[in-house]
Amino acid sequence: MLKSNLMASLTPITGLLGAKNAAHFLRRATFGPTRVKIDEFASKTITEALADVMQDLPTPDAPLDPGTGENWLPKPGELNSGDESLIEYFKGWFMELMRTTGMNMTEKMTFFYHAFLPADHSLIRNTTSIYYQNALYRQYAFGNLKELLTKVCVDNAMLFYIDNTLNDKDEPNENFARELMELYTIGKGDQIGPEDYTNYTEDDVKQAARVLTGIKHDFDFETIDPDTGLPRGKVSPEGIMAERHDADPKTFTDKFNNRVIELDPDDPLMMVDGVATEAGFFDEIDQLIDMIYDQEETAKFFCRRLYRFFVYYKITDEIEQDIITPLADTLRNNNYETKPVLEQLLSSEHFFDLNNSSTTDVNIGAIIKSPIDLIVGTFRFFNLSMPTELMDLYHVAYGQGISRLLTYQGIDFYTPIDVAGYPPYHQVPAYNRNWISPNNLAQRYHFANEITNGKMNEDTEVMLYQLDIVEYVSNPANVSDPSNPTALVSELTDYLFTQDLPAERFNFFLNNVLLDTLSAANWTIEWNNYVATSDDSGVRSQLEKLIISIMQSPEYQLF
């Protein structure tokens, strides 16, 4: 596709997507397409494609406890499995949603918010709270960012994770207030003096911490948010007065236009005898979030996170001016509803590489797949099945299989390194290149072998998952003519890789890997013999070598 010399543009693309654009769109917006879905979306416009992937879905059924076959929500009972087992089951449940939810962005956005606003089970050690946080992020997948952040401030997992459950008017704890500003909303900007940054000061952090005083985590999960229907923290046993909340006025610096957050002492709904009510506490949370989001930089900060997740890590001055700033304007003009921003970004000429200023400045195929995108995307592309028995599914296939692979490849799922989340999504300067190390790369290669050989429950000798490449290419919906080796390699690489292969690289996969010592005519004979006799001995080993070589290639690590 030829590029113009225009600057980066958010102008929507026109016409039908075509296969390459459809594949790019679905790889980034979801956890990956099949060939059938690529072909289906190729005949859609971007408006139609966005409408499809952003449909609201029913709330998924909560995970069951394979140890009992019963629910463990709203909180586990005495007969349920222990928390170390439940977190394994929860992670398997979430990844199974990633695998089985069709061409829809909901689970991708749920994961985006987990990467952006993380939780660490190794510190929280309460899977129920992590499940409800996950449900919160899913509920706001295409929702209002400001509303989500007000809910995050009182989310049980977050309260415990970053110590705001310890934040008391007599002993303030600034940890969450600091991370809220630095990592989750506005960002520091450059330091311009002692305890003074471009976007806020340390005194602003102290004032924000005072606003956030007086709420505790509720691991009984009996305090329900009226807006979401999900459990949240509690401000008092009775749910009336916020005795541990600092009810005095909080004055912020000129970074926030000397804003004062305070309650009306004459309004009994907000304050009684100098003590804040529960309503008063939440009113101050709303005031704090309003104040932070009134700053133009807050919208830009969020749009940079979206851009790096969905497009590319590098934000040049041109991208800041032509992409980030207009996206932030859209976010603010729509009262922080995220759906219009996602639609604008994912429909843009820039997203599809139609107007980038250099032929080397491309977005398609420019991001290294995360281990989740690599593994889940592979399962989805080849439409691999998983066991239906819950213990086989959650404990063995995911717990002992895929979760282990994720860890070996560089993501300890739900145990991020720190409160900033997983480094490839935020850490300067490497960003997504952090996914690749000699050990992590070796484990990606191992995954290609494991999925081809299959993962078995050694106790029951039940095959949990396996890519049968002979069966896959035999399906005409996947490969039109597997007896033709050139067509076979062409169709696999066209749909599995983001860019067309140079002739030398294509010939490597065709001649060095698939055919090896065979001629093209010999391959056709071997394939036709398999079709006639069901004896796959003449084709299986070569097809397995081919698909392993494809999955271990540098091209397959990119999307």
Query: How large is the count of helical segments?
Result: 23
Give the biggest beta sheet.
2 strands, antiparallel
Supply the helix-strand structural class: mainly alpha
Helix coverage percent: 40-55%
Q: What is the 3D form? A: globular
Total strands: the figure is 10
Low-confidence stretches: 1-5
Main-sheet strand order equals: 1-2
Which range does the strand content fall in?
under 5%
Rg (CA only): 26 Å
Distance between the termini: 17 Å
Give the overall average pLDDT: 96
Protein described:
The chain has about 550 residues and is mainly alpha-helical. Among the domains are: about 145-310, no CATH class; about 470-555, no CATH class. About 50% of the residues lie in helices and about 5% in strands. It has helices at about 20-30, 35-40, 45-55, 85-100, 105-115, 120-125, 125-140, 145-150, 155-160, 175-185, 200-210, 280-295, 295-310, 315-335, 340-345, 370-380, 390-410, 440-455, 470-475, 485-495, 505-515, 520-535, 540-550, and strands at about 65, 70, 190-195, 195, 250, 260, 270, 275, 455, 460-465. The strands form 5 sheets. A two-stranded antiparallel sheet has the order 1-2. Strands 3-4 form a two-stranded antiparallel ribbon. Strands 5-6 form a two-stranded antiparallel sheet. A hairpin with a 4-residue loop joins strand 1 and strand 2 (about 70). Helix 4 (about 85-100) packs across helix 17, helix 13 (about 295-310) crosses helix 14 and helix 20 crosses helix 21 (about 505-515). The longest helix has 20 residues, at about 390-410. Mean pLDDT is about 95; it is low at about 1-5.
